[in-house]
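Posting here for the record, re: S-(P-nitrobenzyl)glutathione.
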Amino acid sequence: MTITITAFDRSPDGGKGLARDTRVRWALEEVAQPYEVRLVSFRALKEPAHLALHPFGQIPTYEEGDLALFETGAIVFHIAERHAGLLSKDANARARAITWMFAAINTIEPPILEYVTAKLFEADKPWAQQRVPLVADRVRVRLQQLSSRLGDAEWLDGAFSAGDLMMVSVLLRVRPSGILDEYANLAAYVARGEARPAYQRAFAAQLAVNTRP
Ligand code: GTB
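Prediction output follows.
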């Protein structure tokens, strides 16, 4: 059955891979599943046809036969459950990888999004100068904890898993700030994720969309 995902027809990041379709593309590449992409404009995101797929009017979505999903955590989990390569066959290792997926999107991503929002979208507010360092420190608290746990391991829990895929994807969003580079092992962890051939293919595919004439 054909898998179709949605992505911005022109991502505001110009192809840096920061929009969330990249993590879904990456998961599909890791498990060698071909997919099609339907590009959606910002206006179309809020129109009924897209809202029927995604109640919050966002990308990405995932369609496969009569199944339609939204939320990257659920989409990547679905891909990882259905195809070998992202979750261990060992039940406990699998449960731990899923735990890391939740940690990425529930514990690490929220302060990163607060920071990005404060820095990019609230910079003109009178309180921005006080808020930015505060939220930057909230990011540092989590990155320090994550850095301590990772230590000098290659991945978070043994072999590369959907947990690493989500964690690396989330960490990429904060790298432009320079904060990630304060934690050398996390910066190297993210670089290992990016070096994976599946990530490279996913990145190239979104770049091609976002740099087309
Ligand atoms: N929790 C949802 C998920 O994980 O799927 C969040 C989905 C989401 O935030 N989608 C964003 C979206 O559709 C795109 S990824 N926004 C449009 C809207 O809400 O109207 C977020 C994003 C957007 C742009 C950049 N960028 O340009 O750097 C990076 C990330």
